[in-house]
Amino acid sequence: MIDKVKEFDAVIIGAGFSGLYMLHRLRELGLSVRVIETGNDVGGVWYWNRYPGAKCDIESIYYNYTFSKELYQEWTWTSKYPEQEEILNYLNYVADKFDLRKDIQFETRITAAQYEETNNQWNVELNNGTSLKAKYFISGVGCLSAANVPNFKGLDRFKGNWYHTGNWPKEKVDFSGKRIGVIGNGSSGVQAIPEIAKEAGHLTVFQRTPQYTIPARNYKYSPEFIQKTKDNYEEIRRIMHESPTGNGLQIRNISALSVSPEERTQTYEKAWQEGGFALTSTFNDLFTNEVVNESVGEFIRGKIKEIVKNPETAKKLLPNYLFGTKRPILDTGYYETFNRENVTLVDVKSDPIVEITPNGLRTENEEYELDVLVFATGYDGMTGPLFRIDIRGRDGVSLKEKWEDGAAVRTYLGIATAGFPNFFMITGPESPSVLVNMPSAIEQHVDWIADCIAYLNQNNLDTVESTSEAEEAWSKHCREIAEMTLYVKTDSWYTGANIEGKPRSFLIYLGGFDYYKQKCNEISAKGYEGFVLS
Ligand code: N01
Question: pLDDT digits over 147-157, tens only?
């Protein structure tokens, strides 16, 4: 039940992993808080991503909060890679355990927020025509919550149902016996395609860029293993918060060039059989040396040719971009799916999609009749979710204007940006975010923000704001590290190249989560160096 109070100490956007923990921490500090959530329940991306096959590609024992030892002891994961439903159940359990729902306003969207200089408050406008006032305005929108449905001509005339993987309905979608078209084969498409194929009358996959994917080889955890992780809670927490990746994945400190080609292939083979991200951890120069990168790419292409029986289809599935420069994907029977008789692969790079028709889809050379269309076409990442809200700081300048539509993003630590006092971003642009384990990154940001607010309160201060110099230096540092890697060489959502007209920029901090955390702590220990406190 939502009360009539319109003024809060803090307003938080979103009730996913970020918003839930932020709410909990700020309530512990005695603040009045309101979370605004578009969905009708908690979960964030795990609320929306209910498509068939949706699961996480981070090990479940690391894909959770560690702020409460009791919570860690109470919750039991069932398998290495948790399914969407299990993660959603977990977040519901957290919301109940910490009694979070009473401060969350569901089915409501924040449309705009303006900083009001006269009273040092944020005025937050909601889509129901009301508004809230708050001293602190905190974004928990996530990096991948703005779904991208490409602007295909004719979609409005399509007679069948269409869905985006990131906005999937709660009711089961019935594919049985139907002609289904899936556009896109990133992590979402690769997970959904094998499941949809099992049910569909016929499935046509429209692929623009072939992808590297690795078998997940998911398995159920044994009760002994679970007990061991619970007994080792402190160690799990340490790994999540002190390692470079936040998830226990350890990259072997050995160059692929220091071993013979035979040994390299054997190492890849062993990792392939192990499944999961073992392959990405085989050598320390996989993502920095193009020759090494090509060797793993060639290894995976060999696997595709082995698995896929039709040589023409296999050929279309062979990726040729630098491995890992798009997010590596884990799958369960993805390449095998193309051996099914009810599955067709269409290469829309050589035969582009021209329009959606009332009865299906037309490429330059063919017409496909479809009953259902699935868009697994990804997200306007990093800045997309923030730009969907008209956020305005000092002098009425919007975030979009300040960042020139994404061409000139400048943040300090990915947490704050100059001209936007008391505005915090959890896992914002230029923080490690999606290239480390998200729950680790989220807990670290939330703790840092909560500590900062506690510091302001203890010192009778009202405002914290990054200086332009500090953010300029941080952004430069981020870009310099990114330029040393292969990531910037490929078109992907990491670089913004997946969105038509979006300026290209790499907005993820790559200096390592351990180093990043140390840097954040140093800054707070020096009285929030690089911020103006007043
Ligand atoms: O999106 P994507 P996603 N015409 O951008 C294609 C996380 N995630 O939702 O490669 C035709 O990767 C596009 O083609 P191309 C994870 O971080 C995690 O799959 O641009 N095709 C591509 O094939 C992931 O990286 C999990 O040429 C078009 C696909 O659509 C991120 O979310 C599960 C097109 C989009 O792939 C995004 O993954 C799911 C067009 N106009 C997601 N536009 C876990 O396991 C786009 N495409 C935790």
Answer: 999 999 999 99
Which contacts (CB < 8 Å, 24+ apart) does range 87-92 have? Answer: 87/43, 87/46, 87/56, 87/63, 88/43, 88/46, 88/47, 90/64, 91/16, 91/17, 91/20, 91/42, 91/43, 91/44, 91/46, 92/41, 92/42, 92/43
Q: pLDDT tens across 93-138, in order?
A: 999 999 999 999 999 999 999 999 999 999 999 999 999 999 999 9
Residue among 377, 427, 492, 502 to mutate when testing ligand 1 (max atoms within 8 A of CB): 377
Q: Is the pTM of this model over 0.80?
A: yes
Distance (angstroms) between ligand 1 centre and the Cα of 104 equals 30
Q: Strands of 202-207's sheet, edge to edge?
A: 161-164, 372-375, 179-183, 202-207, 343-347
223 CB contacts (<8 Å, ≥6 apart)?
none
Round to whole Å and give the CA distance between 169 and 146.
Answer: 16
Q: How far is the CA of 183 from the centre of ligand 1 (A)?
A: 10
Q: How large is the angle between the packed helices 233-242 and 223-231, nearest 10 degrees?
A: 70
Confidence tier at 249 by pLDDT (50, 70, 90): confident
The span from the CA of 214 to the CA of 296, in Å, is 11
Pocket lining: 439 vs ligand 1, CB cutoff 6 Å? no
Find out whether the beta carbon of 434 lies less than 6 Å from any atom of ligand 1.
yes
378 CB less than 6 Å from ligand 1?
yes
